[in-house]
Amino acid sequence: MNKWLRLVLLVVSLPLTACSTMNFVNGPEMEDTVERETWHHLGLSGVVEYSPPLDVSYSCANQQWDTVTVELSGFNVIASYSPWLPLSIYSPWTIIYECREPID
Fold first, then answer.
1. CB atoms inside a 10 Å sphere around CB 88
2. In this structure, is residue 29 part of a structural domain?
3. Signal peptide: which range, if any (predicted)?
4. What pLDDT, on a 0 to 100 scale, did the predictor assign at position 3?
5. Which of 25, 51, 99, 104 is the most buried (most CB within 10 A)?
6. Is residue 3 part of a domain?
7. 96 by DSSP, 3-state: which?
8. Is 102 helix (H, G, I), strand (E, B) or coil?
9. How confident is the model at residue 4, as a pLDDT?
10. Is the pTM of this model over 0.85?
11. Sequence-separated (6 or more) residues with CB below 8 Å from residue 82
């Protein structure tokens, strides 16, 4: 396939992709939190997990988790783009989680 045709198909198909965000909140949201970010790696259009699920209790150590945001951003879509295959072999999601001091 011609390089220019591939580029045109990429530019035309990018606006057709969708982004997604899911938010999880643990009790009242606190102001004094520590925010961290990681990627969760999936494959075959989300059917296969390459990385283990995020264990927020382990990741926050002696703290409680405050919020967890799982999102498919535009950058994740670009990272998973494959012009040669109809299925996406690599589909990363961004996970942003916040830890706080225990309120119990």
1. 17
2. yes
3. 1-18
4. 81
5. 99
6. no
7. strand
8. coil
9. 83
10. no
11. 88, 89, 90
Polymer length in residues for the chain = 104
Backbone angles phi, psi at 42, to 5 degrees: -120, 165
Of 20, 12, 102, which Cα lies nearest the Cα of 61?
Answer: 102
Residue 4 lies in a domain: no
Residue at 41: amino acid letter: H
CA atoms within 13 A on the CB side of 17: 20
User: Has residue 84 been placed in a domain?
Assistant: yes
pLDDT tens for each residue of 16-50: 666 788 999 988 888 888 899 999 999 887 788 99
Q: Distance between CA 76 and CA 50 in Å, rounded?
A: 15
Q: Which pLDDT belongs to residue 52?
A: 92
Tell me how many domains the chain contains: 1
d(Cα 44, Cα 91) in Å, to the nearest integer?
8
pLDDT of residue 91: 86
Owning domain of residue 89: 19-100
